[in-house]
Design goal:
Length: 125
């Protein structure tokens, strides 16, 4: 491996990005298991996991260097970036309506006046 070869530098950067992405995904999984309520778990499942996936995809793009593979990876990023925020929003809204959000952990509550809660709690505690 010659350090003057740009492909060698791209492979090294790809490896570093993939390892960092895997570590961020691991942190997201630990956060989902350890955080106390729905909203913090939702945050942990969305933000570091999406960033971890982006880093892994960027590392794969640097490693593969094939236009068709990079196009498929671009579609993966596009679908992840459109579905993760929507899914998190819907989970948070459903948890709030079902009374699964801990009020003592909220800094501000902008939904209580606008969104009625359901009479019976649903979902996991």
């Amino acid at each position: 491996m010659s350090w003057t070869d740009p492909a060698a530098w791209a492979d090294l950067a790809a490896g570093v990005l993939m390892v960092l992405g895997a570590l961020l995904s691991l942190v997201a999984a630990i956060g989902v298991l350890r955080f106390p309520d729905v909203l913090t778990r939702m945050h942990s499942a969305t933000k570091p996991q999406v960033l971890g996936l982006l880093l892994v995809v960027l590392g794969l793009a640097l490693r593969l260097r094939d236009p068709s593979s990079i196009a498929v990876l671009g579609l993966v990023v596009l679908f992840q970036m459109t579905t993760a925020p929507v899914a998190s929003h819907m989970i948070g809204r459903a948890a709030f309506r079902a009374g699964q959000v801990r009020d003592d952990l909220l800094v501000t509550d902008e939904l209580s006046d606008r969104l009625p809660r359901l009479d019976e709690p649903r979902g996991a505690p």
